[in-house]
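Morning, I've got a small favour to ask if you have a moment. I've dropped the whole record in just underneath, so have a look.
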Amino acid sequence: MLPLIQRIVTEDKKWLTEEEMIDCIAVCQALPGVISINTATYVGKMKKGIWGAVFASLGIILPSFIIIIIVILCLSAVGENPYIAGAFTGVKAASCALILYSAFKLGRQTLKGKFAWIVAALCFGAIVFFKITVVWVVIAGALAGIIRIKVLERGG
């Protein structure tokens, strides 16, 4: 949903600029909960205040909730159908592709310079290979940025 939200918010409706959307994604990623819901709530709040946040959140949650209820009712009727299992395999693969696309697009927009790419690669490695919690990786990334600024201010 994130690539879809990003395209609608920045390109189609022009509610936020690309930079504002990047800030939105960064804030929403750091918050607990589903990023698409957090993003919709953030954009709703930015555009129409508290009521915008409420209705944007409902707009994201209700369709999924209704679809899940319908799917549960249908799945109990079809049981162990191999076609349904195959469809779910394809849906999961497509979902992974959307997430990778979103990460790639966000990386190209935000990672400016070698330092940012190195920090991103190190953070990715810390999460994937060393199973470090995302919270600690975000904190470490922030500290790395602060240290870099301090070093640059001293002329190093």
About this structure: Helices lie at 2-12, 18-30, 35-78, 82-110, 114-130, 134-153. The chain has two domains: 2-110, 112-156.
